[in-house]
């Protein structure tokens, strides 16, 4: 029998965020790690941290930094204005995203029963999306993803033997049943920890790991501004979003 007491209702509702930011972002080209590229003069990571801390439900943000960049990330957090009501911790990441998320989970104090995992490369997610994910977990979902309907028709293909070769189309999935998944993804902490202790092999997101446990995952509405900054054109779009926010909201 475990000696660990179950969390109180208040503890079970407390929310922490893990932001894995240890990747190099090769698709954006050489230079600084993707999370440290700037938007409007501010690193994307800081935008992402602010987006999570904008939710009054978030009490702790754990940033998982590149092993050789922990001091730099700590300095960034110290030199940018962040909400006083939220605590911030920086830990060293691993070779893979899964290892980095696990490092973030290991750094969480026991009193946090809800965990969000957020991509540092999604710097502009609105606070309403963050709150919707948290609320769905509070209402009993063990795993929640924000998601958007697809605008394009999707084809399943047989991958080409060589880059640039034609790819045979195998099927056309029903678009109405498909969603593009974003972050932050929200979890009951115990379920997410069990997924990281159990699931091995290639995974593209933490919700997929929970699916492999056989646990249900639900989707809530995502937002078009929660896109992932992956390629140089995405940086242009992100700058345009920030410019519009400054014009409309004084952001």
From TrEMBL:
The keyword Acetylation does not apply. The gene is ispD. The record marks 27, 34 as: Transition state stabilizer. The record marks 175, 228 as: Positions MEP for the nucleophilic attack. SUPFAM superfamilies: Nucleotide-diphospho-sugar transferases (SSF53448). CDD domains: CDP-ME_synthetase. Signal peptide: none annotated. It is an enzyme of class 2 (transferase). It holds the Pfam family IspD. This is 2-C-methyl-D-erythritol 4-phosphate cytidylyltransferase. Pathway: Isoprenoid biosynthesis; isopentenyl diphosphate biosynthesis via DXP pathway; isopentenyl diphosphate from 1-deoxy-D-xylulose 5-phosphate: step 2/6. It comes from Streptomyces thermocoprophilus.
């Amino acid at each position: 029998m475990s000696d660990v007491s179950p969390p109180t209702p208040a503890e079970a509702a407390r929310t922490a965020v893990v932001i894995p930011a240890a990747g190099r972002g090769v698709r954006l080209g050489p230079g600084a790690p993707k999370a440290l590229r700037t938007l409007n003069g501010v690193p994307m990571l800081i935008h992402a941290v602010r987006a999570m801390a904008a939710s009054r439900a978030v009490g702790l943000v754990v940033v998982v930094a590149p092993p050789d960049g922990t001091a730099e990330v700590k300095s960034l957090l110290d030199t940018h204005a962040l909400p006083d009501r939220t605590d911030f911790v920086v830990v060293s990441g691993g070779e893979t995203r899964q290892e980095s998320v696990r490092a973030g989970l290991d750094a969480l104090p026991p009193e946090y029963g809800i965990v969000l995992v957020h991509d540092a490369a999604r710097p502009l997610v609105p606070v309403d999306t963050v709150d919707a994910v948290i609320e769905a977990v509070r209402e009993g979902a063990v795993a929640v993803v924000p998601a958007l309907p697809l605008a394009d028709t999707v084809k399943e293909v047989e991958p080409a033997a060589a880059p640039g070769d034609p790819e045979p189309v195998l099927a056309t999935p029903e678009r109405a049943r498909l969603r593009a998944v974003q972050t932050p993804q929200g979890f009951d902490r115990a379920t997410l920890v069990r997924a990281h202790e159990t699931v091995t092999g290639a995974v593209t997101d933490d919700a997929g790991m929970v699916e492999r446990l056989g646990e249900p995952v639900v989707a809530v509405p995502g937002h078009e501004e929660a896109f992932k900054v992956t390629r140089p054109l995405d940086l242009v779009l992100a700058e345009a979003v920030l410019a519009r926010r400054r014009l409309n909201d004084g952001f």
